[in-house]
Write a structure and sequence with these properties.
CATH class of chain A: Mainly Beta
Radius of gyration of chain A: 15 Å
Largest sheet of chain A: 8 strands, antiparallel
Oligomer: homodimer
Strand content of chain A: 35-45%
Helix content of chain A: 10-25%
Order of helices and strands of chain A: EHEEEEHEHHEEEHEEE
CATH superfamily of chain A: Electron Transport, Fmn-binding Protein, Chain A
Number of strands of chain A: 12
Distance between the termini of chain A: 36 Å
């Protein structure tokens, strides 16, 4: 699997990669354990501070690691590893070392203990910013405290889940004069 | 502009259209006024009840109409009307009748007073479900109380905002065996 060489990226600009709605991989760590989960329910909430809201079901093994450590990394995979992304979502960290099983490389992050996934083209280091909706909706509000993005390709192919085992692959780009 | 003939759609399945991350149009009404805004910051939160979280800046004229009426309609536009979608985002309902200016058809909804936009292929009637994060984050949690979707085409081309005036157009679909 291809590893991406990344550069520092402004945290206030992560919307460029998340707003289009890709399926992402969330990595987490707590007391020597680490895990990865597949996630599709997320939204940008603010540019500065750089806030992201994510629905992470408490049934996920990652829920506990993220809740207790207060941290995670949001990694954006490309279409090349889409089968791996789906397989990660179909097994549990309770009985599987997913980094080992799927031969993914856990790279040390800068500001959090959760690992970056080197085979993803972007990694956003996150800390929990607001816990208010975790109990009611399993909804975490994270602040992106550090962002790493591969400078090339500029627009990697991402996958976007439609449900029922169907993913939309990101298509071409069009320019339309817009305010923001 | 093409009008879409729609059928009733299960509210628990609206994720099929929203989870891929399209830019949507939010229509609202309050005391005889109505408006449309362009929105890209949304996420599915739950299947049943059918919950959607949306960030709607208080600077938007629509914010007041939605906040006071407690309702809105989330409409999904196709690429055909992408220029209109962007133009709607670049002007304000404070001084513009957007239905008139952009020649869109306001159709009566079934369960809310906010109008459906007939030129969009899907319309989701929403009521505010939880106001807890409106003040802090301008984050509305809506329940979809009625959904209308055009049965054809099955996968209309949608637009997905990358920031900086660039939109990604939804590409082809791939099937990957997935749990949900």
């Amino acid at each position: 699997m291809k590893k991406f060489k990344k550069k520092d990226y402004p945290v206030s600009d992560v919307r460029r990669f998340l707003e289009p709605g890709p399926t992402v991989l969330v990595s987490s760590a707590y007391k020597g354990e680490q895990n990865i989960m597949t996630m599709g329910w997320h939204t940008i909430l603010e540019f500065t501070p750089s806030l992201i809201g994510c629905m992470i079901t408490s049934a996920n093994y990652s829920f506990g690691l993220i809740d207790k450590s207060g941290e995670c990394v949001i990694n954006i995979p490309t279409r090349d590893i889409s089968k791996t992304v789906v397989s990660i979502g179909n097994c549990s960290g309770a009985d599987t070392d997913k980094f080992k099983k799927f031969r993914l490389t856990a790279q040390q992050a800068e500001k959090v203990k959760a690992p970056l996934i080197e085979e993803c083209f972007a990694n956003f280091e996150c800390r929990i910013h607001d816990r208010k909706l975790i109990k009611t909706y399993n909804f975490f509000i994270f602040e992106v405290v550090k962002a790493h993005v591969a400078p090339s390709p500029k627009y990697p192919e991402t996958i976007h889940y439609r449900g029922n085992s169907i993913f939309m692959v990101s298509g071409k780009n069009i320019r339309l004069p817009s305010g923001k």
